[in-house]
Amino acid sequence: MHTILITGGAGFIGSHLTRLFVTKYPNYKIVNLDKLTYAGNLENLKDVENAPNYTFVKGDITDLSLLRELFVQYKFTGVLHCAAESHVDRSITDPLAFINTNVVGTASLLQAAKEGWNGQYDEKIFYHISTDEVYGSLGKEGFFYETTAYDPRSPYSASKASSDHIVRAFYHTYHFPVKISNCSNNYGPFHFPEKLIPLCIHNIINNKPLPIYGKGENVRDWLYVEDHVRAIDTIFHKGKIGETYNIGGHNEWTNIDLVKELCRQMDEKLGREKGTSEKLITYVTDRAGHDLRYAIDATKLKNELDWLPSLQFEEGLSKTIDWYLNNKEWLDEVTSGNYQKYYNKQYGV
Ligand code: NAD
Ligand code: TYD
Question: What is the dihedral sign for C-alpha 4, 101, 69, 126?
Fold first, then answer.
């Protein structure tokens, strides 16, 4: 029996995680604390918003007094910490927002949990959700292991690396009950269309250019979001305190090959002539400090906790495209208003 605080539960991964925990564990109480930034959207949780074991609280993880009150009010036994500023391009234009939420916010949450739990750490879990980007950039060979030295290179990854370090410092200094996972790039429903896959799906639907940074040769390791939250569930319940687990799909794609596969599938689904969407591909100025390649070795998770990804990429991509085509209202809603301002500034159109 748990009362769990999920932070950032209205975002992309957080909403899938919240849905999984609310539906799979009716005996757990789930409190979702989210600031509802541009990336947070309660529409992502429509299907569970009235569940008896679910509560939403609007608030900021940097607000220590609010966090203290929540720990007193709800007596949390677990924390699943997803809230973050998550987009690399935004971190290049506004690094302080990332340091504030990702570093100060995570430290505030740790402090509130430490005070709330007051040394009673039995059956308590503080689970910090992080990214493979903390490990830096790979060349053409090799993988990120849990033992790979941190080498973050963007303000986003540096802020996530800092937060990982602070979480580990609480474990080593206070024997605070932490778990950490570092995951590769996720994709799937409810992904905000500033990230590569949903941005391209949106632009293909609207016949707009598909902006590829540099030569499109950068490599990412893509994992379906439901596989990620299944891994988090496994680690939360079976992983060891103080341990870090890498999560990844063994599914590497160059950006250009991925976008071409997306174009191929979307031409078929939209009944467009083969090759139509590929004509929208436009090479644009590269991202500053663009990491060449990410690739996760998730052997520890497989060997110790028996987790493997369930979906092949082509199938996951097809499910994702279908979701966006069937949820145009969601897409129209999140791409109205401030999205246009962001887009014009980022892509100079
Ligand atoms: P997201 O940007 O879609 O969602 C972030 C959520 O956090 C939003 O709901 C937002 O409103 C909320 N939030 C932001 N600042 C907040 C604050 N100060 N207080 C309270 N809530 C706040 O992000 P995501 O893609 O779902 O990522 C979730 C977590 O997973 C992040 O920690 C990210 O670093 C990590 N991660 C993401 C990926 C990926 O591919 N998206 C991969 C690995 C790890
Ligand atoms: P993104 O989805 O932003 O994730 P991350 O930077 O965290 O890996 O980007 C994925 C890859 O796609 C990355 O190499 C940058 C590239 N990219 C483009 O080529 N064009 C775009 O418009 C965007 C948003 C990303």
Answer: positive
Q: Is 189 in the pocket of ligand 2 (CB under 6 A)?
A: no
Rounded Cα distance, 156 and 244, in Å:
20
User: Does residue 108 fall inside a structural domain?
Assistant: yes
Residue type, 332: D
Expressed as residue numbers, the domain containing 121 is: 3-186+223-247
Listing DSSP states for 17-42 in one string gives HHHHHHHH-TTSEEEEEE---TT--G
Å from CA of 54 to ligand 2 middle: 33
pTM for the structure as a whole: 0.98
pLDDT digits (tens, 9 = 90+) for 76-96: 999 999 999 999 999 999 999
196 found inside a domain: no
CA 232 – ligand 2 centroid, Å: 24
Domains of the chain: total: 1
Q: Is residue 75 included in any domain, yes or no?
A: yes
- Residue 215's alpha-carbon distances to 284, 285, 286, 349, in angstroms, are 8, 9, 8, 20
Does the CB atom of residue 185 touch ligand 1 within 6 A?
yes
Burial class (CB in 10 A: 0-12, 13-18, 19+), 279: exposed
Distance 29 CA to ligand 2 centre (A): 36
Q: Please tell me the residue having the least CA distance from ligand 1 atom 35.
A: 130
- The pLDDT tens digits for 258-315 are 999 999 999 999 999 999 999 999 999 999 999 999 999 999 999 999 999 999 999 9
CATH code for position 28: 3.40.50.720
Q: Is residue 63 part of a domain?
A: yes
